[in-house]
Amino acid sequence: MKVTIVGPGKVGMILAYTLVMRGSAREIVLIGNNRRKAEGEAMDLMHAQAFMKIPVKVRAGDLEDAANSEVIAICASVPMAHDFGDRNSLAVGNAEMMKRILPVLAQSSPNAKLLMVSNPVDVLSYQAEKLTGFPPERVMGTGTLVDSMRFRELLSSAVSIHAGDVRAYIFGEHGEHQFAAMSVAQAGGEKLDDTPERRALCDVAKAAGIEVFRKKGNTCYAIGQSASYVIESILLDQKRTIPLSVAIDGYLGVKDVYLSIPVVIGKAGIERKLQPQLSELEIEQFHLAAKSVRSVIDSIM
Ligand SMILES: NC(=O)c1ccc[n+]([C@@H]2O[C@H](COP(=O)([O-])OP(=O)(O)OC[C@H]3O[C@@H](n4cnc5c(N)ncnc54)[C@H](O)[C@@H]3O)[C@@H](O)[C@H]2O)c1
């Protein structure tokens, strides 16, 4: 149960901390472009894990120390401007970085599951599949998991049901072209009707990531929790249903792009892509999301 986290910044370290607190991994390797800082982070986490029931070994390393990882999470990024507002603005810089990192990691961990967190996550997940040569079942991005959880948290207050029991999914792009699949949203087996108020909550959830960034300079807790949830489902073979950015190969007539849909995630990676029946409007929104992500892919590849 070895997990490598590349990019021990705000997101990478909340992910590492959550994995340690939950006791999901036995070994965590932190790889950054500042070895001294990564060593400090690893030491600090080792001291924290001493409180936990389940021991975890955390260490800093270089790319070769990732060898034989079961899961590799990519949280490395070029810096984001203070007035950051468009995830696609990171595409060129991060795509160049991935060209240097991913082939090396793929060679030394040929059986790893690769979880992309860095933005623009749909574009980088697509590129990651090409750079690693991994089968698409083992390449995924956190996609709209964090957006879905933001939406569920808002819906939860509106319908007075625990967020964990609200089954509502955001589909499409982790960005402007995301949408709530209200036609399949439900809680306790009861359909959550598609009302203008609920659609407005989807817009609030969509804007929330950038709003948090503008207020505190980063977003880290919800995304760190999201990434650890995916990794735990892989390590423990939980087979959870999670909306993730995955290779779309014909769903609703869309191909050759990464977008978020609900999938079953376990030891083998993406074990099943769920194909809910969407409404006409949602299908149209899915196609728009595909067009948007595809245009950024074309600009970097
Ligand atoms: N998918 C999502 O929902 C989501 C949510 C929040 C943030 N993000 C993305 O996650 C990424 C990280 O965000 P952050 O706030 O942690 O940024 P950050 O600046 O705090 O961390 C970036 C890390 O990448 C490291 N890094 C840079 N170049 C590297 C290289 N060549 N090799 C290894 N490490 C390198 C840096 O040292 C730093 O530790 C960004 O792209 C951000 O947009 C995604």
Automatic annotation (TrEMBL):
Alphabetized InterPro entries for the sequence: L-lactate/malate_DH, Lactate/malate_DH_C, Lactate/malate_DH_N, Lactate_DH/Glyco_Ohase_4_C, NAD(P)-bd_dom_sf
Annotated Pfam families: Ldh_1_C, Ldh_1_N
Alphabetized UniProt keyword annotations: NAD, Oxidoreductase
Molecular function per GO: L-lactate dehydrogenase (NAD+) activity
Gene3D superfamilies: Lactate dehydrogenase/glycoside hydrolase, family 4, C-terminal, NAD(P)-binding Rossmann-like Domain
Every Lactate/malate dehydrogenase C-terminal domain range: 144-299
Keyword Protein biosynthesis recorded: no
Binding site for NAD(+): G7, P8, G9, K10, V11, G12, N94, V117, S118, N119
Domain Lactate/malate dehydrogenase N-terminal: residue ranges: 1-141
Location of the active site: H174
GO biological process: lactate metabolic process
Keyword Thylakoid: no
Family, as annotated: Belongs to the LDH/MDH superfamily.
Record's protein name: Lactate dehydrogenase
Originating species: Luteolibacter pohnpeiensis
